[in-house]
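Lab meeting minutes (informal)
Scribe: AK
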Amino acid sequence: MSQNLEKIEEAISESSLWESFKKFINLHIDFTDKISISILDLLVIATVIFITTIVLRFAFRVITRNLPIEDKSKFSVVFGYFRWLIYLIILLITLHSVGVNVTAVFAASAALLIGIGLALQTLFQDIISGVFILIDQSVHVGDIIEIDGKVGRVEEIKLRTTRAVTIDNKVLVIPNHLYLENSLFNWTQNGTITRESVDVGVAYGSDVQLVKKLLIQAASTHPDILSEPEPTVVFTDFGDSSLNFKIVFTINDSFKAAFPKSDIRFEIDKLFRENNITIPFPQRDIHIIQKPNQNIQFKNNSENSK
């Protein structure tokens, strides 16, 4: 008899615990008059988000299983952009399923959302631009780019910015939206070999054939200049005070093009001096015409001022 009483008491106790648990999970948290979420709803939302995370990771592994390492890293960045969008869609669907008025949520937070949207407008432009960069592959890590007058080697393409290093080892952080607003010059998209040039002017009356020979000699003897294609001299124009030439050559590292171009200029100046080729500077003849009446008037004005 006593054992039966104990079993009845345990059943009553367990029943009371279950009822207390049910009351707890059904407890509602009122954010506004129209928005109320229970503890059970929060548990459901957390469970759905957890399951979504597992599914997304599994989908990423399946999709990128056979991709090359370079393409896998690019897809990883793009996938990261859209993962948060998927989370947002799943969250809204879950809230609607558990009975939360999603329209009321948007209405209650309309002013906040507008403020956030205005503040994050540039951020969204950067993110969308980053997606475009990875999709059309206009820029890769290692490329040498010129944008808005700045030149750098791309080290990393991130969610919002592209990080590049300039020739003087300074880090250049480029917001991705600048790719849509400015012209982008990719120096190495067709390869690391590029054509460079050095301009020089010589005095009228100089032996142009000798000038051509010396310019080719200055470029051909530099160790960083490729022999194929051969350096070429272009007679560009008859200037106001000089005959203008351009020596065109090919190098294998355009990122450091300033150094061989400087060396070639030094060599050109040396060869021109040795062969009596003059590099002119702009000259102007000024003719001063004095009229006696104007001088007298000027003197009179000076005397009056005294």
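Next up, CB showed the second protein from the same session:
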Amino acid sequence: MPGKNTRFFAGKPLVQWTLEFACAYQGFDEVLLSTDCKDAAVIASACGKPVPWMRPSELAGDDTGTVDVILHALSEYQVRGQCFDRVAVLQPTTPFRRADRWHEAKRLLELGVPAVVGVSAVEQHPYWTYWIDGRGAMSPCFPDNKTILRSQELPAAAAINGALYWIDTSVLARVRTFTPEGVHAVLMNDALESIDIDTEADWMHAEQAFLAAEALK
């Protein structure tokens, strides 16, 4: 969806939802919008966070990894004399956030874990999933767990939802992943906060979910 971050969602540009949360949350020392889009930069300025540099074109493609973008931002700060022990990533495509989730993530980091990610419970437990080969033949993804027959016996399972990433900067630079060994999870069971807008259908679903939630207030 080209231009989705500056497209109006529920009354304001999509990226503004994230900027406003980041600016209001007391756990961040600095807030940066990394972008190559002038319109997004204007929105950031209106939120009180002018963009100090534009993201270079080689880091603005569809195949650019988030880790590369974050490491570039950290290096730009370092050139300017600023270093950070941790870095959080707030994707504009997940506009709804709860501060208590970030408080929990911060608590875990202060206990010494290297990284925290947001997760949501999976609808289909992975123990009950199958591989399917080119001929349609099925084989269990977890063949050693055939003895588990009841759902209440299954271990907890979740999937990363993209709503929260917070990691030690030295760990990120060394392993180049947001899920290093020792990563911990913050479980999110609110349907709104796990929304990740990637397609037009996602956009419509997110708007409907938001309106439904507002109607219940």
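CB comment: Helices lie at 14-24, 38-46, 66-79, 99-110, 169-175, 200-215.
No objections, moving on.
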